[in-house]
Amino acid sequence: MNRRKLDPEASAAAAFGDRLRRLRDERGWTQEQLAERCGCTDSHISAVETGRRPPTPRFAASVDAAFGTGDLFQRECAEIYRPSLLEGFREYVPHELKAAEIRIFQIGIIPGLLQTPEYAAAIQGGDVRRGAITEQQAQERLAKLAERQASLTRTPPPLVFVVLDESCLRRPVGGPEVMAGQLDKLLAFAELPSTVLQVAPYDLGERRSFDLPVNILTLANRSQIAYAESAQRGQLIRETTFVVGALTAYHQLQVEAASQAASVAMIQDLRKDFP
Length: 275
Description:
By secondary structure, this protein is of the alpha/beta class.
């Protein structure tokens, strides 16, 4: 029997469907048998397992009751409708973990790969206080961030090129102690042999190539993909035309941005403001 392959990293709905299929297989149940326990049709089970139909909260509750999994599926269902990660980002991360080269442009805040735990916790805590995410979702984000940061220490490490808009450095996050630690981390990052850190100063003006954050990955086979996001969503992009255009714009930005030496000097000067 041909079974549609599932990629649980693709989306929260795909992760739900993958877990549903795995637990059903572990118990030796057919889709018809699970459907009978859940009060639905076997075609509905099939559609949810393959991601063709998102689960409803009611369906998730019936699955938890059938499997005896507490509220596991109900929590995963909530993640579909109120995800802790932007759409597209879940698909992007596995590529980043294996990329040979990572290029980042960021506006407003320090990019995740360079954040200290305290800085990251302050950012997520702000989202929790505003009601944008739950405490559990904040913890899930921090866990995913730790996984991404750990991948930078693999052998051989990826080459990481980072251009920070000046706003990343001047926006205070978490108080003076947190900012001091974060600036120290940036300075240490700039000293690594596999990294380049530059600042795009405010006076770059209209010469700045991007108005939104963008990541560009070069994979082990030298193919390239891009990830761009707004406040509402993220998008993983493989189309060659877009990726080549984004890479060209990134190189133009690097030329216009301050050199690494000048960027480090700027960060060191800002560091003096935090004891």
